[in-house]
Structure formats: structure tokens, C-alpha cells
Design brief:
The complex is a heterodimer of chains A (261) and B (135). Chain A has 261 residues and is of the alpha/beta class. In chain A, 37% of the residues lie in helices and 17% in strands. Chain A has 11 helices and 8 strands. A 7-stranded parallel sheet of chain A has the order 4-2-5-1-6-7-8, sandwiched between helices. In chain A, helix 9 links the parallel strand 7 (200-203) and strand 8. The radius of gyration of chain A is 18 Å and the shape is globular. In chain A, 52% of the residues are buried. With 135 residues, chain B is α/β, with parallel strands linked by helices. Chain B has a single domain (9-133), classed as Cobalamin-binding domain (Rossmann fold), CATH 3.40.50. In chain B, 41% of the residues lie in helices and 21% in strands. In chain B, helix 1 (22-33) packs across helix 5 (121-130) and helix 2 (47-56) crosses helix 3. The longest helix of chain B has 14 residues, at 71-84. The chains are: A alpha/beta (261), B alpha/beta (135). The A-B interface holds A 2, 4-7, 28-29, 32-33, 35-36, 39-41, 97-98, 101-107, 109-110, 113, 116-117, 122-125, 127, 129 and B 1, 3-7, 9, 28-29, 31-42, 45, 48-49, 52-53, 55-58, 85-87, 135. Bound molecules: guanosine-5'-triphosphate and magnesium ion (MG). Guanosine-5'-triphosphate binds next to helix 4 of chain A.
């Protein structure tokens, strides 16, 4: 397939089938390997047809918003929330690759370290590798892999964006846009972008001055605006309820456990 | 797992109690600037957390800063866990204030490289880039 490729099993459809089989029994190393292959080789998508997944058995939640608004902290809290119901949770945390060197500093999981020893949680950092739209090219495929491995909820954190990077809308069943006080102009810009397509809008850092102003302003624009203090967990239960409500209104099929908190 | 056309993925973190992260952050940035995908895990990680994370992130190598005196125990624990998890293809390297004799034993145990404080960052970068041609 690729003469540069020293990874012989890549070319072998039988090996992809074996790997897919290991994914389906929930083998974490197989999940990790297959996601890497999907990132590195378009040919690895052949494996997807052995997975037999459609993202309809799983709840896919997108979390997006400006850099530093608190996306990772919110994802961390939502993971705890779903874990308390005994649901297996996957996280795909996307950060941007340097357009100059191709390198990336993937630091979202710093905020999620509480879950590092929980075998019901799989967290994967992904770099955009030049892909535009706020996600990595392989993020959707990675979600399919997680569904096949038995994860019932997947939380996808996009790169820090506000306006045009809205791939997440096509992937997630429910999109949560996170805003924080003190982002005056940025929020104005988001009104013609992310906020239009988000299903739930969150004003995080509700402990800071300006949060009430942001709430009042946004409520004139968006159907569902919530206040959270992700650092303490305040408002997370309400956020999970709003996500469940949105899923119900769309008639998305997914685990009952995750839907009725 | 290294593939010629794909960026290297390296976990960088700090194990142990001391709270200085300036050094590891510098390394993380230097590696990013060298084209590496760096999974930065932050401070105060345990060997168990590090190995679980490395497996989920499918990294090519783990680079740990261990400044506490317990470096020998901690590096060995990481090696042991990698073995238990059948993940010995993940290379381990590190930095810290490590006496010569410990460098010798730990390298014999399987740590691929150890850097002292004050080692030029470029040395670390060159070592990591060399991993690409491993296997
Ligand atoms: N005051 C306050 N700070 C918060 C709150 N939630 C998160 N933070 C802080 O905001 C900073 C950024 O939080 P993250 O969760 O990393 O934000 P993010 O949106 O994921 O950031 P990027 O991924 O870099 O775009 C951290 O220092 C958090 O501790 C909150 O509710 N109140
Ligand atoms: Mg983040």
C-alpha cells in the first residue's frame, strides 16, 4: 500500500479483522492501536466494516468553545457524572497541531487525571494534523471504535474555537458550547457561528464577575443557557439533565442508564 | 509502533512529590517544536497512571521527570508495569538528579536514556527523534 510503511500488518485485511475483533471484546490496547492506524493510514478504514457500528448505540456529546473557557474541566465532571451511573465513558480530546512543525502539545487530560485509573474510562488525545473544522480527520472513526468497544457515552472536546470550526455538529448528537465571562467580543463573534448550532450553551466560571451579565445576554439568543462552575462541579447535574433532555427530544437511541440520570 | 510518515507520540509527565514543572514543560515544548505529538500529563502522577495513560494514548515512548530520591523504585515500577501490560514496545526515558551508579543499573534494567538537570534540551530532542527508527 505504502512503500514507506514499515508496518507490515497494515496491508493485511486479515490482521485488520483480528484487530477489530479484539476491539469488539473491549481490549484497550487494540482500541488504542486501531485509533492510531486510523490516524496514520486511510487504508485502515477497512477495519471499520468489521466493527459494525453506526454511532446510534452510543451517546455522542460534543464540547466546544473558546480556549480556556473550561471545556476539559467540564468534560472531566461529566465523566464523573456518567461513571456514577456505571456507564463506560470515552473521551476524545482534540488539540491543534502546529502548522509549522506538525508537532502538538496535547494537555487536555491534565484536567482529567482523576480518571486515569478507572478502567471504565478511555481518554485519547488527538492532534488536528492540519485538518480544519475543529476536530482531527480521524475523530469520527475513533468514536466508531469506542462504540464497538462498548463505550456508551463519548465526550468529544474540540480545539478551542468559537466560530467556523463546526465539524462537531455533524458528529455529535448533542453539542455543548462553553463560554466564560470576560470574553465580550468573542461571544459576539460566536453568535454568528457556534452558538447558532449549539444545543446547550454553558456559561462556565459562574463564580467570576460578569457571569450573570453573560447569562442574561445569551438567553436572548439561545434556547438553553446554563451556568456552571466546573471547578467545583456546580451546575454539572443540570448540564447532564439538559443533554439528556436534548437527546430525548431528538429521539436518539442510546443507553437508558445514561439518559435517566 | 513508530511509522515513518506519522508523528511520534510521546508522553511527558512528572512522577513524585516535588512540584516544579518548569523543566518538564520546557522539554514538552521543545519536543512539540521538533514535530512530536506530546501528551502532557502534568505533575504528581503515579507509575500506574502513567502506564495506563501511555497505553490509551498509544505512545512510542514515556519521558518522566523524577526529582525525588525514589527515582530507582519509580522507574523500575514503570518498567515492571509495562511488562505486565505486555507494552514493552513503549520506550522509557527520564530525567532527574541520578547518581552514576543508578544510571548504570537503570539502563541495564531497560530505561533507554537518562538526562541530568542541565543537560542540553537538544540532547533530549535528538534522543527522541532517534526513536523513530527504532525496530
Ligand atoms: N474560576 C474558575 N475557573 C475555572 C472554572 N472551570 C475551569 N476553570 C479554570 O480555567 C482554566 C482552563 O480550564 P480548561 O478546562 O483547561 O479549559 P479548556 O477550555 O479545556 O482549555 P483549552 O483546551 O486550552 O482550550 C483552568 O485553569 C481551570 O482551572 C470555573 O468554573 N471557575
Ligand atoms: Mg481543554
Amino acid at each position: 500500500m505504502n512503500s514507506l510503511n514499515p508496518h507490515p500488518f497494515m496491508c493485511d485485511i486479515h490482521d485488520l479483522a483480528t484487530l477489530a475483533e479484539e476491539v469488539r471484546v473491549g481490549d484497550v490496547r487494540a482500541v488504542s492501536r486501531l485509533i492510531s492506524l486510523l490516524e496514520n493510514h486511510p487504508g485502515a478504514r477497512e477495519a471499520l466494516r468489521f466493527l459494525n457500528t453506526t454511532l446510534r448505540k452510543m451517546m455522542v456529546i460534543g464540547v466546544t468553545g473558546y480556549p480556556g473557557a473550561g471545556k476539559s474541566t467540564i468534560v472531566d465532571r461529566l465523566v464523573s457524572f456518567y461513571r456514577r451511573q456505571g456507564v463506560k465513558v470515552g473521551v476524545l480530546a482534540v488539540d491543534i497541531s502546529s502548522p509549522v512543525t506538525g508537532g502538538a502539545l496535547l494537555g487536555d487530560r491534565i484536567r482529567m487525571s482523576e480518571h486515569a485509573m478507572d478502567f471504565g474510562v478511555y481518554i485519547r488525545s488527538m492532534a488536528t494534523r492540519g485538518h480544519h473544522g475543529g476536530l482531527a480527520r480521524a475523530t469520527g472513526d475513533a468514536a466508531l471504535v469506542l462504540e464497538a468497544a462498548g463505550y456508551e457515552v463519548v465526550l468529544i472536546e474540540t480545539i478551542g474555537v468559537g466560530q467556523n470550526e463546526i465539524d462537531i455538529v455533524n458528529l455529535a448528537h448533542t453539542v455543548v458550547a462553553v463560554v466564560a465571562p470576560g470574553l465580550g467580543d468573542e461571544v459576539q463573534a460566536m453568535k454568528a457561528g457556534l452558538l447558532e448550532v449549539a444545543h446547550v450553551v454553558v456559561v462556565n466560571k459562574g463564580d467570576l464577575t460578569g457571569a450573570n451579565h453573560a447569562l442574561r445576554d445569551l438567553r436572548e439568543w439561545c434556547p438553553k443557557v446554563l451556568r456552571t462552575v466546573a471547578m467545583t462541579g456546580e451546575g454539572i447535574q443540570e448540564l447532564a439533565a439538559a443533554i439528556a433532555e436534548h437527546q430525548r427530544s431528538r429521539g436518539v437511541r442510546h443507553v437508558e442508564k445514561a439518559r435517566n440520570r | 509502533m513508530a511509522i515513518a510518515s506519522a508523528p511520534l507520540r510521546i508522553l511527558i509527565g512528572k512522577v513524585g512529590l516535588d512540584g516544579h514543572d518548569r523543566g518538564v514543560k520546557l522539554i514538552a515544548r521543545a519536543l512539540r517544536d521538533a514535530g512530536v505529538e506530546v501528551i502532557y500529563t502534568g505533575l504528581h502522577r503515579t507509575p500506574e497512571q502513567v502506564v495506563n495513560t501511555a497505553i490509551q494514548e498509544d505512545v512510542d515512548a514515556i519521558g518522566l521527570s523524577i526529582l525525588s530520591g525514589a527515582h530507582k523504585t519509580l522507574f523500575r515500577r514503570v518498567l515492571e508495569l509495562l511488562k505486565e501490560q505486555d507494552a514493552e514496545d513503549i520506550a522509557l526515558f527520564g530525567g532527574g538528579i541520578i547518581p552514576d551508579e543508578d544510571v548504570t543499573t537503570l539502563t541495564a534494567d531497560g530505561v533507554k536514556a537518562l538526562f541530568r538537570p542541565g543537560a542540553p534540551i537538544q540532547e533530549v530532542v535528538e534522543f527522541v527523534k532517534g526513536l523513530k527508527w527504532r525496530d
